Amino acid sequence: MMNLFKKDPKKKLAKQYEKLMQEAYKLSTVNRRLSDEKYAEAEEVVKKIEALKNQKA
């Protein structure tokens, strides 16, 4: 039986990616180094999403 309360990991990662990108954008006008760090974190999340997609394929 499928667990109805189990979250889709891709959706969770997509939300995390969106949040990191928003933070990176906000920081871009204030602190470029922190903005770049957030962007790098977001890129790592994209890699995790791609890995999950490849596992299902």
TrEMBL record:
InterPro entries: Bromodomain-like_sf, DUF6435
Pfam families documented for this protein: DUF6435 (PF20027)
Recorded superkingdom: Bacteria
Gene3D superfamilies for this protein: Bromodomain-like
Full protein name: Lacal_2735 family protein
Lineage: Bacteria, Pseudomonadati, Bacteroidota, Bacteroidia, Marinilabiliales
